[in-house]
């Protein structure tokens, strides 16, 4: 699952490399508007006649992409790093499948770590009752909850969580790296 996502992450990073150089921030309104120069992007990459990329850039998903990722000051992520800093690496790996596979696996591992910041915490799944279990006569009544024991368990859990790193990391906002200009591709 993560490796397939990593492949698509690389694909979109390659497709949109240099997109930040074609963004224009318009501050006429109270809320800034971000405009993407599609013609400049396609022209600088020499892909004006490319029907696929033209349709991608004209789609609603890309408009959402620009509005979400266009602001110059926001939380950065793995995609921003790929677009800005991994241009040469991705180019060098085009002719070398083992290096490409290694990079995909590294990206997949980063995706996994982003989604599971505390891998040592395991969640136990509660099994579903078997079919017809509600018809059984020998169902035992649910035991009374011992309030003291519940409080002890809560205190134990709080004590453990005090020393543990936070489960979610805060998104630190930073200036999004622009990466190389489009003409270099």
Automatic annotation (TrEMBL):
A biological process from GO: regulation of Rab protein signal transduction
GO cellular component, one term: cytoplasmic vesicle
GO MF term (any one): guanyl-nucleotide exchange factor activity
Domain UDENN positions: 1-76
Location of the region described as Disordered in the Swiss-Prot/TrEMBL record: 161-185
InterPro entries in the record: dDENN_dom, DENN_Domain_GEFs, Tripartite_DENN
Source domain of life: Eukaryota
Protein name as annotated: Myotubularin-related protein 13
Lineage summary: Eukaryota, Metazoa, Chordata, Craniata, Vertebrata
């Amino acid at each position: 699952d993560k490796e397939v996502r990593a492949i698509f992450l690389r694909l979109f990073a390659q497709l949109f490399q240099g997109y930040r150089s074609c963004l224009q921030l318009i501050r006429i309104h109270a809320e800034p508007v971000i405009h993407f120069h599609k013609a400049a992007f396609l022209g600088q990459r020499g892909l004006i006649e490319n029907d696929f990329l033209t349709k991608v850039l004209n789609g609603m998903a890309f408009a959402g992409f620009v509005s979400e990722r266009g602001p110059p000051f926001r939380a950065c992520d793995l995609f921003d790093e790929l677009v800005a800093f991994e241009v040469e690496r991705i180019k060098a790996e085009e002719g070398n499948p083992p290096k490409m596979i290694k990079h995909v696996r590294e990206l997949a591992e980063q995706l996994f770590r982003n989604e599971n910041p505390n891998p040592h915490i395991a969640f136990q799944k509660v099994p579903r009752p078997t079919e017809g279990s509600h018809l059984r006569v020998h169902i035992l009544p649910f035991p009374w909850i011992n309030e003291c024991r519940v409080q002890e368990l809560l205190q134990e859990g709080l004590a453990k969580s005090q020393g543990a790193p936070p489960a979610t990391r805060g998104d630190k906002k930073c200036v999004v790296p622009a990466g190389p200009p489009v003409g270099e591709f």
